[in-house]
């Protein structure tokens, strides 16, 4: 690679290209930074075999920017980044340090392949293209029509997957693992099928990891849960929106609990809240907790539904989270205080 240094410019020849579209990166260095910062970043780009990068001193009016030119299939994405005095590289929607070399390469590659997102877009999970993610969420947002209590886990997973458009690949090994499970114990009717299927798979230590397919197609490969690979979640945490989504949690009632188990207490409270309740069966099994075998106790007092749930569940070393399913419907997720 040829490197040319003159008049305050550092130019790396060629283009940051993957396919027909390409990325040009122009880096502006802020005053007050280390003199060697530009050379450090140039070396980083050289080691990553990334080219089409210009590094220069700042001018009045310089700012982080992204300009698109060219025509479909041969677009040029010209990125203006700012190298701050703290040796951080600011680009549209991102902030990198020299130690983030792999993330920088990935970001440039995705920009060349997928183009920029719309202003305000959140990062698309699982490395999917935005239209793929939207299409997957639409499929997984379909409601579960039939009742699910006491169904076999393997048959239930197949039924849910059909509702989801068969976007989960249930291997023979996964089906065999599900077939060894007992009858399903939570009612999933009315929940989004993606959340329901994720709950069934998780109960047996399985999860579906979305992978890119052709066009808008996404295939979720089902395998054993791995801390290094995030699986499709059992809903999305919405605790910050509890007052908006489930205001009844903060209503007060007169309560006294004696002679009932934690599970029985939750069963009696859930209809008043008007939302489904799912248990993290995997976590309960790992930590050896059976809420049906733990006695609940609460002296007569006036309390809110939220505090009642917290106090009762804590007696079984459990807690609740408010989550929303793939269609945005709220439900309670009961899991262990100690993480899995």
Uncertain residue segments:
1-15
- Tally of separate helices: 10
Strand content: 25-35%
Largest sheet, strands/sense/barrel: 9 strands, mixed
The multimeric state of the shown protein is: single chain
The helix/strand order is EEEEHEEEEEHHHEHHEEEHEHEHEHEE
The level of helicity is 25-40%
Which structural class fits the helix and strand makeup?
A: alpha+beta
Shape: elongated
Average pLDDT reading: 86
- Radius of gyration equals 26 Å
User: How far from one another are the termini?
Assistant: 48 Å
Number of strands: 18
Number of domains: 3
Q: Can you walk through the features of this model?
A:
With 340 residues, the chain is α+β, with helices and mostly antiparallel strands. The chain folds into three domains: 119 residues, no CATH class; 100 residues, 3-Layer(bab) Sandwich (Phage tail protein beta-alpha-beta fold); 98 residues, Phage tail protein beta-alpha-beta fold (3-Layer(bab) Sandwich), CATH 3.55.50. The chain has ten helices and 18 strands. Strands 1, 2, 3, 4, 5, 6, 7, 8 and 9 form a nine-stranded mixed β-sheet that branches. The chain has a four-stranded mixed β-sheet with strand order 13-17-18-15. The chain has a three-stranded mixed β-sheet with strand order 10-12-11, with helices on one face. Strand 6 and strand 7 form a beta hairpin. Helix 8 packs antiparallel against helix 10. The protein is elongated.
